[in-house]
Design goal:
Blueprint lengths: L1 H12 L5 E4 L2 E4 L1 E4 L2 E13 L2 E10 L6 H6 L4 E7 L3 E2 L1 H12 L5 H13 L4 E2 L3 E7 L3 E6 L2 E2 L7 H11 L6 H7 L3
Antiparallel strand pairs: 1-2, 3-4, 4-5, 5-6, 6-9, 7-8, 9-10, 10-11
Length: about 180
């Protein structure tokens, strides 16, 4: 009886860490950015030519189905790209970023910042991750497999990059729907 009581007490002290799963990728339900805890808004699958490339996970300060608000609110946020395809070169990643953003009006003005962002990327293999964090007053930080670049100040780059995932012209409708909790 004493052992059972001890087990119950111990389990009440251990925080529950829940996780979500999609296409073999498991992510935590929360993340910390800019000193604030974010919640997993949703996960979506990025496919190209019928090939599963990565699982995108969106973290926001509160769950939302409003993509415009999620992009434009000046609050901490995160996108995680968890790669499930065998290998993608840095050049392929850069090309995909530029193609996904060139139709947005702010693309030309943000091209120099995008080049800084892309410079920090590397070839990606199954199991690798790219994390894009935004924190007000700090800017956008991209991390590749845990190695963070210097922040790129301002909210404009963040709005453009997050638009690639959940904006009016997302990489794919399926990715956006999943990340927006659909």
């Amino acid at each position: 009886m004493l052992t059972a009581l001890f087990t119950v007490l111990l389990s009440s002290l251990t925080p529950n860490v829940e996780a979500a799963e999609l296409a073999g990728v498991t992510v935590p339900d929360t993340a910390a950015v800019g000193g604030q805890t974010l919640v997993l808004n949703g996960m979506g699958l990025r496919e190209k030519y019928f090939i599963d490339v990565y699982v995108g996970s969106l973290y926001l300060t509160a769950k939302s189905t409003d993509a415009d608000a999620a992009i434009n609110q000046d609050v901490p946020k995160r996108v995680v790209m968890s790669f499930i395809y065998s290998e993608i070169s840095k050049d392929q990643l850069a090309e995909t970023f530029y193609e996904g953003l060139e139709n947005y009006p702010q693309y030309a003005a943000q091209r120099p910042a995008l080049e800084l962002l892309v410079a920090g990327m590397s070839d990606m293999k199954k199991g690798d991750e790219i994390v894009v964090d935004y924190a007000p007053g700090v800017g956008t930080v991209i991390s590749t497999n845990g190695v963070a670049q210097a922040p790129i100040p301002g909210a404009d780059l963040m709005k453009l990059v997050f638009s690639m995932f959940i904006g009016p012209k997302p990489a794919t409708a399926k990715l956006k729907s999943g990340m927006m909790g659909g």
